[in-house]
Design goal:
single chain; mainly alpha
Length: 117
């Protein structure tokens, strides 16, 4: 709604001010408004600068964060150790005892086939 003022709006405001204040006081009012805007800009820049200074002072006054614990050193493995690490140990023979039951499997042992078949 109050986004920008175009040329017609500015001309209307200028003519209205000229009629209200007259040609003698209009330059004086313009200088006063200009000085006021410059002072406002200067004060806002000073305020921004002081806020930035306080933030910087607060950041530098904080104690540093503790360092993370050092990681354990990495020890290089030989090729044989790497090869052994990747292969699981497998028993090549079945344990003695029940032929159908294994240590991993809990349940009834399978019936051996009858001798005639």
């Amino acid at each position: 709604m109050f986004g920008t003022l175009g040329l017609p709006e500015l001309l209307f405001i200028f003519v209205l001010a000229l009629l209200i204040f007259g040609p003698k006081r209009l330059p004086e009012i313009g200088r006063t408004i200009g000085k006021g805007l410059a002072e406002f800009r200067r004060a806002s820049n000073d305020l921004k600068r002081s806020i930035d200074t306080e933030i910087l002072a607060a950041d530098t006054a904080r104690p540093p964060l503790p360092a993370p614990p050092a990681a354990a050193p990495v020890v290089a493995k030989t090729e044989a150790e790497e090869a052994m690490a990747g292969t699981p140990v497998v028993a090549e023979t079945e344990p003695a005892g029940d032929a159908g039951a294994t240590a991993d499997h809990e349940g009834p042992a399978a019936e051996p086939p009858p001798p005639g078949e």
